[in-house]
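#structure-requests
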Amino acid sequence: MDNGTITPYARPARWIHWINAALVLLVIPFGFVMVRLPAGAAQNQVFDLHRSIGFAILCLAVVRVAVRIAYGAPPPAPGLPHWQRVASQATHHLLYVLIFLMPLLGWGASSAFGAQVSVFGLFTLPDLVPKDEALSRFFGGAHVYLGFFMTALVALHIGAALMHGIVRRDGVLSRMLPGLSRT
């Protein structure tokens, strides 16, 4: 299949995708590192950075949905087996849910813990919930477990993109790459 038959995503959707991808690929390792650091200033800085990036992901998720509504999505790439279309749609929908849910769970866990969420030192978010140790553990635990799930989905998504782009060379990856026209 040549790239001439592939309809790309709208340019704004592609930009948001790659910015979001960079943020997600930053926030995941910070999440793993911050809980392993000894308590103190360094750990607090990594927590603040993790929270700030998480809030940026949440804001970008809102913009991403607005762009999706405004521009829609291209039709599925021709020639994909049914199971790949279903797997792709399921993965994308789960990732959409998680880019909203993960920051909200983290924000809720921080609020319930009693930690303020400062966004890059520019402003502080209001608490989502009152201080509550049990609620903090619940939100924090859900955030951690879903973080592992999201990491696996991101790895699956990257693997599938690379399979289409490098192994199959079927044009599916090119739908999200910069350079193709579709305003």
